Known about the structure:
The complex is a heterodimer of chains A (280) and B (360). Chain A has 280 residues and is mainly α. Chain A has 14 helices and no strands. Chain A has one domain: MetI-like fold (Orthogonal Bundle), CATH 1.10.3720. In chain B, α2 (93-103) packs across α3, α2 (93-103) packs parallel to α4 (137-149) and α3 packs across α4. Chain B is an alpha+beta fold and 360 residues long. Classes of the chains: A mainly alpha (280), B alpha+beta (360).
Amino acid sequence: MTRLRLLDHIILLVGVLFMVTPVVLAFITSTHDAVTIYRSGLQFTLGDNFLSTYRTVLTEAGGFTKQVDGFVMLKNSLILGLGFSIGKIVISMLAAYAIVYFRFPAASFCFWVIFSTLLLPLEVRILPSYEIVQSLGLVNTYTGLIVPLIASATGTFFFRQFFKSVPEELLEAARIDGAGAWKFFIDILVPLSKTMIAAIFIIMFVYGWNQYLWPTLITSDETFFTLVRGIKQILQVWIGAQIPDYNEAMALAVLAMLPPVIVVVIFQSWFIKGLVESDK
Amino acid sequence: MAIITLDKVRKVYAGGVEAVKGVSIDIADGEFIVLVGPSGCGKSTLLRMVAGLEEISDGEIRIGERVVNRVEPADRDIAMVFQNYALYPHMSVYDNLAYGLRNRGTAKSEIDARVKEAARILEIGDFLDRKPRQLSGGQRQRVAMGRAIVRKPAAFLFDEPLSNLDAKLRVQMRIEIKRLQEALGTTSVYVTHDQLEAMTLAHRLVVLNHGRIEQIGTPLEVYEKPASTFVAGFIGSPAMNIIPVKSKEGRLHLESGEGLDAPDGFGAEKALLGVRPEDLKVDFEGGSSDDALSLSMKVIAVEPVGAESYVHGRMSGVADDVVVRVPAKAEYAAGVSLSLKAPRDRLHIFDAANGQRLNG
Ligand SMILES: Nc1ncnc2c1ncn2[C@@H]1O[C@H](COP(=O)(O)OP(=O)(O)OP(=O)(O)O)[C@@H](O)[C@H]1O
Ligand SMILES: [Mg+2]
């Protein structure tokens, strides 16, 4: 039994090392200057450029147009991540609510249509999507960046399954208590869905945060750049004898990781709390 | 407070199932009506139509003077207690009670007063801040009742509210519901498949079978004069013994040759004789007498239940076991033949063709 325990721990530790080492190395390396990194690759001891590198990354405008610093990119990433995840949750909850609680013609047909869009991820419909956004004049806007991404079959599906598991008597009790369709949704369903919302928020926030292809396509204006794009941008400046600012790229990568980690940590405990004290 | 009238109410579900087939009941103000019947007989459907949760296919339901066929549940002035309580899991007990009042725009102070009052009556004052999941089954049941009474509705509707409780708590809550209904005097409709619950709670019973009313009456009426073999079998435990008899020249004959007068004007060849286990007496003297019918059966088994025992036996010409209620300590060996007496004025006679009661 104890030997098995030990083995378990070793396996877990190996897993943790496997996941964490690249991150730690990225952080350590980011504290050296670009020349050192260029000359001798990844570093294994802390350097002394931590403050200057991170200050540069966050506050000094970079890119071709010199308009965008780390804070702007962080803000853009946050807007994208939050808009994406909150938008998806709102839209898919409303869609699922309509499908589960309202008898309208072809309700299940509608559901399957929504569901079948799972087969058509953004990458497949990227050209028509671009065409539409462009013709609406939404290129280089947050709306154009977020709205085409928020339709979510996955979210609709999860919320539909969850709503179906809510006892019907709850709806009936609420009807007798004088709650209309909207009140029932806000007062009863949304609070009951708390853990579902937390779970989907985690997944969707990270997914939205890491979007690369769509933002690249829809925003050419550097003031709309997200962190994920910014990293790429730093590595692309092969002008003359200039070497890429590897230290800044590393620092940006570390910074780009922080918000998703924070979201996961906060909402995961929420999510687990909800699961443990499940009420039915 | 209100009278409730059901007038030839029918319910046909989307799939074509006719769950309720023309039911008419007049419920008096303050009356406690219990709908009772086997699973699937349409009790819940009928109650839910009164509540407004189920559309009425045909007929009319009136609460007070108002026809409510097209009135929303919230506007019918009724409150309902569900089998699984249907408390809002994320709200405190206080909010559960207050929610309906808030939706109606009742003043805050009034809500507070009513919730406190209901909590006092139901003795749930100590849990007002708790969530439903932090309560025991019995306490949840009280909260569900509280949610009904804070509204001061014209009628209470109960759908098997006690069936999720254990036996002891069920008896206790049963008494409490009865007491509460008497104190408040609110018209109540209560659905159950438990005949004991039905007998003890009801002012009047409505026995349902396959979506039709078999009998309406006070518990004693229904017990003493069941209108059909169905009611006879459903009300009373153990169930009434039904013995097939042949009719000849104005007399009904058992297979053993014993006979009794047929009801006036009865012409058919076959009838059913009903006798309750508690009316059958073990006859030690033997011989026939004028005021009692003699029967005999072969003992199969004795079932002691504590205060009394039930002797199961076989009687020639009867398909089911015949059950006799005897004092607790009585012992009968399997296989012995037992002579029984049934007082003639305790016999029930039913039409063999349609199961309807024939004697007065
Ligand atoms: N939504 C529905 N659609 C179709 N048929 C239904 C529906 N609800 C109930 N029924 C049918 O209607 C009949 C009566 O159902 P109901 O729920 O009223 O029975 P019940 O007397 O309350 O039974 P129980 O004691 O099991 O609760 C049953 O045959 C049932 O199958
Ligand atoms: Mg039922």
